[in-house]
Design a protein that fits this description.
The protein is built from three helices and two strands; from the N terminus they run H-H-H-E-E. The chain is mainly α. Strand 1 and strand 2 form a beta hairpin. It is flat, with a radius of gyration of 25 Å.
Amino acid sequence: MGIFENYRYALTNPDMLLALRNNALWLLLMVPGTIAGGLFFALLADRVRYESIAKAIIFLPTAIPSSAPALSGGFVYDVESGGGPQIGLLNPLSLGWEQGSYLVEQSGHQQLFH
């Protein structure tokens, strides 16, 4: 068994060749198609009277899914340092760590689980 055995298998197995062909087609067709479609919709949205509404309709569906995990992550790691109730979802599961010390900045370095 040589060091290039995986390459030999990938370039001779019919299933692997089909998968490689499908990936190449995806790259050659979908990436330029997506870019062309995006430019087409950008030109359309730029030429209408209600430009801001059209752009909001296009961009909001892409902004919401990426901001939702960031907001929910804040609830997981939220630490109340003023003595109030701890509302972070990981706070009851301290697992032997100091309460609420999941992401702590100490001496200028951000540490995870100190």
